[in-house]
C-alpha cells in the first residue's frame, strides 16, 4: 500500500498541493485524474524522491519514505516503476534490445540471460512474437506496450503510468488500457494511472482520485463518480467547457 498523508507542495508562491491524503491499495488500479496542471505528476514524483514535500508524509507498505536520502530511494524506485508520458524507444534497436538494455545494466547479467528476461517481459505485454522487429514498424499503442515492458525490468510491485494514453490515437489508447488491465490481473501489480482520458477512467479504474485545487475533491469508485452531484465532478467527467471548475 502507498499512503500519501497531508502532502503540501508549493513552487515559489504557487501552492500546487494543499494537503493531499491518498491511499493506494495493493492490487488495485487507481486513477489520479484532474485538469492539466492540477498537480498529478507532482504528487506521484514525491513517491520516488523526484520531489520533496514541504509538509506531509509518504508511506510505502508502512515504511516512511518521506525523508530518505537519494541513495535510499534506489530501493523505492526498484519497487515502484514509472512509465513517463514521453518514454521513447531507441529506433535503431529491436524491441528485444530496447527491453534487454536496462535489464543488462541493472541486473548485470549476460547478453543471453538479459535477452531471455526481456522476452519474458515482452510476453507480459504480448509483444514477444515481434521482439526482433523495430519500433518504427509499430503504432503508438504497440510502442507504449514495449515501454511498459521495459518498466518491468526490476519486477516492480507498483507501476505509475503518467498519462499513458495522452497524445495516443483512440484505438492505441484502448490497447494501452488493455495491457494495464491484463498486467494487473496476471501479475498482481498495483497500478497508479494518471489520466484525463474518460474512456480509460471509466473502462478500467478500480478507484478514482480527483485532484482539484490542490486537494482530492472526490476519491471513490466509478459509480461514486457517476452518481456524484458535485457540480465540479460533474463538469470534469462530463467534459463540459461551462461550469464551476476553475482551470
Ligand atoms: N519542478 C517544478 N518547478 C516549478 N513548477 C513546477 C514544477 N513541476 C511542476 N510545476 C508546476 O506545478 C503545477 C502542477 O504540475 P503537474 O503536476 O505537472 O500537473 P499535471 O496535473 O498536469 O501533471 C504546474 O503549474 C506546473 O507548472
Ligand atoms: Mg502531468
Radius of gyration, in angstroms, nearest whole number: 18 Å
Mean pLDDT: 94
Continuous helix count:
9
CATH architecture term: 3-Layer(aba) Sandwich
Distance between the termini: 31 Å
Strand order of the largest sheet: 6-7-8-3-9-10
The low-pLDDT segments are: none
Count of DSSP strands: 10
What class do helices, strands and sheet pairing give? Answer: alpha/beta
Main beta sheet? 6 strands, mixed
User: How do the helices and strands follow one another from N- to C-terminus?
Assistant: EEEHEEHEHHHEHEHEEHH
Rough shape? globular
Can you describe what's shown?
This protein is of the alpha/beta class. Helix content is 38%, strand content 24%. The strands form 2 sheets. It has a 6-stranded mixed sheet with strand order 6-7-8-3-9-10, with helices on both faces. Strands 2-1-4-5 form a 4-stranded antiparallel sheet, with helices on one face. The mean pLDDT is 94.
Amino acid at each position: 500500500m502507498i499512503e500519501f498523508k497531508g502532502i503540501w507542495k508549493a513552487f515559489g508562491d504557487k501552492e500546487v498541493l494543499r494537503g493531499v491524503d491518498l491511499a493506494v491499495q495493493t492490487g488495485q488500479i487507481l486513477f489520479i485524474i484532474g485538469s492539466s496542471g492540477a498537480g498529478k505528476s507532482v504528487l506521484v514524483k514525491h513517491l520516488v524522491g523526484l520531489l520533496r514535500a514541504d509538509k506531509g508524509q509518504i508511506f510505502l507498505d508502512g515504511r516512511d519514505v518521506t525523508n530518505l536520502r537519494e541513495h535510499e530511494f534506489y530501493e523505492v524506485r526498484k519497487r515502484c516503476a514509472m512509465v513517463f508520458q514521453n518514454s521513447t524507444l531507441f529506433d535503431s534497436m529491436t524491441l528485444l534490445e530496447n527491453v534487454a538494455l536496462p535489464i543488462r545494466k541493472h541486473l548485470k547479467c549476460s547478453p543471453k540471460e538479459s535477452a531471455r528476461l526481456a522476452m519474458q517481459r515482452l510476453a507480459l505485454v504480448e509483444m514477444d512474437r515481434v521482439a526482433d522487429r523495430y519500433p518504427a514498424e509499430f503504432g503508438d499503442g504497440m510502442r507504449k506496450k514495449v515501454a511498459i515492458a521495459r518498466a518491468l525490468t526490476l519486477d516492480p510491485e507498483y507501476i505509475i503510468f503518467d498519462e499513458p494514453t495522452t497524445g495516443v490515437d483512440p484505438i492505441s489508447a484502448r490497447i494501452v488500457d488493455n495491457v494495464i488491465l491484463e498486467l494487473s490481473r496476471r501479475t498482481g501489480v498495483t497500478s497508479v494511472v494518471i489520466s484525463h482520458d474518460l474512456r480509460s477512467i471509466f473502462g478500467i479504474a478500480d478507484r478514482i482520485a480527483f485532484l482539484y485545487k490542490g486537494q482530492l475533491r472526490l476519491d471513490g469508485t466509478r459509480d461514486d463518480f457517476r452518481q456524484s452531484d458535485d457540480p465540479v465532478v460533474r463538469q470534469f467527467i462530463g467534459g463540459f467547457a461551462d461550469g464551476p471548475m476553475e482551470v
